[in-house]
Amino acid sequence: MASSRSALLAAGVIFSGLSCHGCHGSASPVPDALASDIRPGGPGIAVVELFTSEGCSSCPPAEAVFERIARRARDSGERVVPLSFHVDYWDGLGWPDRFSSPDFTERQRRYSRAFGDSGMYTPEMIVGGAAHFVGSDGARAESAIASAIARPVPVRLALQVVRKAPDTWLVHYDVVDGSAATEGATLWIGVVQRSATVHVGAGENAGRTLVHTDVVRAFVESPMHAATGEAVLRAPWVPMPHEADVVAFVQQGEGRDAMAILGADRVELP
After folding, report:
1. Cβ-contact 51, 87 below 8 angstroms
2. CATH number, domain at 175?
3. Is residue 10 part of a domain?
4. Given pLDDT bands bounded at 50, 70 and 90, which one contains residue 15?
5. Phi first, then psi: what are they for 126, rounded to 5°?
6. Coil, strand or helix at 59
């Protein structure tokens, strides 16, 4: 199987030298005891991002690695936050990925610039906003996750989520410790669909049924002007119970210690 990077080079779509970067009724906050499954304090947190596409034949092995990481974290309580971003630069090569977004491509582009890379590729895995490698490399993934968890958390973040409409939530955040570290940082908030199954009808994965894990469906950027604040989050579908989470994390900008993730929290949608 040819690598996706080689396929993109052959197709002339490798990105290089880039300079830009379900219920109605009254809403109620999530009770504190249920607000988060990531406890503040203690060891670190590994935010694991996978940049992938249904049009990429090298991506299913990486998604299998990612699924094992996510399942283990969910079963064991390991402090791992998995996020799968479907990029859109494969969409014109035979199969449009319905989970893809130019916003997710832009996020990968920011990383590429911060890391000094000459281009972007799939599958790419990034752990903690720092370690980056081919997403199917399970050994590198395990090592990077272990390193991230071993580091103390600079920022302790807590979330509460209030449903405003079937597809809309108000997310309230508090930096409960480490607010000094958030100067110049950004809060990213997303809705994550825990699982999705798609039969691919064309492109490199034609005829395959792909199972996706922790797919980011909506993602917003909120500059941190204070240690507490709110953001509105809208999803492109109405999640069923236990189908989706809200994830938020604090990330440095693209300057010194570029894009390092300082703290994170995850809440099941109410």
Report:
1. yes
2. 2.60.40.1930
3. no
4. very low
5. -130, 130
6. helix
